[in-house]
Design a protein that fits this description.
Layout lengths: L1 H5 L4 E2 L7 H12 L2 H6 L1 E11 L2 E7 L1 H13 L1 E14 L2 E12 L12 E13 L2 E8 L1
Parallel strand pairs: 2-7
Antiparallel strand pairs: 1-4, 2-3, 4-5, 5-6, 6-7
Protein name: SnoaL-like domain-containing protein
Organism: Rhizobium lentis
InterPro entries: NTF2-like_dom_sf (IPR032710), SnoaL-like (IPR037401)
Length: about 140
């Protein structure tokens, strides 16, 4: 299913073209404004993060997501997720993103303070009503 979403038609985009909760989430993410990110989420939101084919996080619920988001944000001195292209169909928005971040302090995975990280990936958002009900991040 995820592969089919990657293959959907893409178009260059600005955040103005995104569904409001997704655009607000991305803006808040870049500002490291966790409270505003969480405001965009449904209480039962599902989150899945896949890195190099391995699931690194799978959780359900706004509180669990907020805890992970706060921990993740603190790992970076700065971070930015740039939307390269997007497509939206049937309540699902696929973002092709370029992530850039600077590590805040040495991490157990070998990343060191001041190291710059550049990663391309895909974020898939499911929106129902005015809330995000599912996020799948693949890098």
């Amino acid at each position: 299913m995820i592969k089919a979403l990657f293959m959907s038609e893409q178009r260059e985009t600005s955040q103005d073209a995104l569904p409001r909760p997704v655009a607000d989430y991305v803006t808040a993410y870049n500002l490291k404004d966790i409270d505003r990110m969480v405001e965009q989420l449904d209480g039962g939101v599902s989150f899945l993060h896949v890195m190099s084919g391995e699931t690194t996080h799978a959780l359900k619920g706004r509180d669990a997501f907020a805890e992970l988001a706060r921990s993740s944000a603190s790992m970076f001195k700065s971070r930015r997720q740039k939307v390269v292209s997007s497509s939206t169909r049937d309540g699902r928005t696929v973002l092709h993103v370029q992530f850039n971040g600077v590590i805040a302090s040495d991490l157990a995975n070998g990343w060191v303070a001041g190291q710059e990280i550049d990663v391309s990936g895909v974020s898939i958002f499911t929106v129902a009503g005015e809330k995000i009900t599912e996020i799948i991040d693949v890098a």
